[in-house]
Write a structure and sequence with these properties.
This protein is of the alpha/beta class. Helices cover about 30% and strands about 15% of the residues. β5 and β6 (about 165) form a beta hairpin. α2 packs across α3. The longest helix is centred in the first third of the chain and has 18 residues, at about 60-80.
């Protein structure tokens, strides 16, 4: 349906409890304003958004929407005047990291003065293009990293949600470390963030347990949000997972009630 286009938080069932202070972000370069270019030809109705487990503005999902708005408010307070890159990673597979990343990006897109870009970096278990109903046949992140001459516009997809765009994983790969640690990956993230001051980037990362990719991706992010499955991921597992990241980037843990 939608194709490519031009160009320490503690939550119980989505509710913010507290956050940890992080260091100031570096000064960003000036950039053009992108909002006027982000028209949506097929905006999804509320019922379809709920079927895809996405928040929206109507009362039927008010509790979840408000919870993600609270997380957004906290991150914006930590980020100050600058846009930023947030890595969202689950403690273990099935903890709901992709769900949180998707809805956090949506919460930022609620603000008509901001845009969101969700980048699926979970190469083993990519989920965002399916969850958002995006036909990613034109490729994604890995395709662009391997063939940059195709242009980043070829892997930027509309989502049916105003001001939210997606870059899917693209070509299947077991090991993302070689891509995520490359100069080209860092250049892509810096370019996507610096081009527009109103653009906020969200990296949907793989589970921390059993893969080094989450730690590698954290080098590209300003903030790291860890997602734990409520009642399943133990305190010891959460602490061990959090220890993988720079304390100045770790903004907290979201406890997700996985279905």
């Amino acid at each position: 349906m939608n194709g490519p286009e031009d160009d320490k938080l503690l939550v119980d069932s989505g509710g913010l409890v507290h956050g940890a202070k992080v260091g100031a972000l570096p000064q960003r370069a000036s950039a053009g304003h992108s909002i006027a270019r982000m028209s949506e030809t097929d905006t999804l109705p509320a019922k379809q958004l709920e079927q895809r487990r996405l928040i929206h503005r109507e009362n039927s999902v008010r509790g979840q929407s408000d919870a993600f708005r609270e997380i957004r408010t906290r991150l914006l307070w930590l980020g100050g005047e600058h846009n930023f890159v947030t890595l969202v990673v689950p403690v273990s597979p099935g903890s709901g990291g992709s769900f949180v990343a998707r809805n956090l990006a949506t919460a930022f897109a609620f603000d008509e003065a901001k845009t969101s870009l969700l980048i699926d970096c979970n190469l083993r278990y990519p989920a965002q293009h399916t969850a958002l109903g995006v036909d990613a046949s034109s490729g994604g992140l890995i395709d662009y990293l391997e063939h940059p001459a195709s242009g980043i516009q070829s892997v930027l997809y509309r989502t049916g949600i105003p001001r939210l765009r997606l870059i899917p994983t693209g070509k299947a790969r077991e090991n993302g470390g070689e891509y995520f640690s490359s100069f080209r990956m860092r250049a892509v993230i810096d370019s996507l963030r610096c081009r527009y001051l109103d653009r906020y980037l969200f990296l949907d990362g793989p589970a921390i347990k059993g893969s080094p990719d989450a730690r590698i991706l954290s080098d590209l992010a300003d903030f790291v949000v860890v997602v734990a499955s409520y009642g399943r991921d133990t305190p010891a597992a959460i602490s061990q997972a959090a220890a993988n990241f720079d304390a100045n980037k770790l903004t907290g843990v979201v406890f997700n009630h996985a279905p």
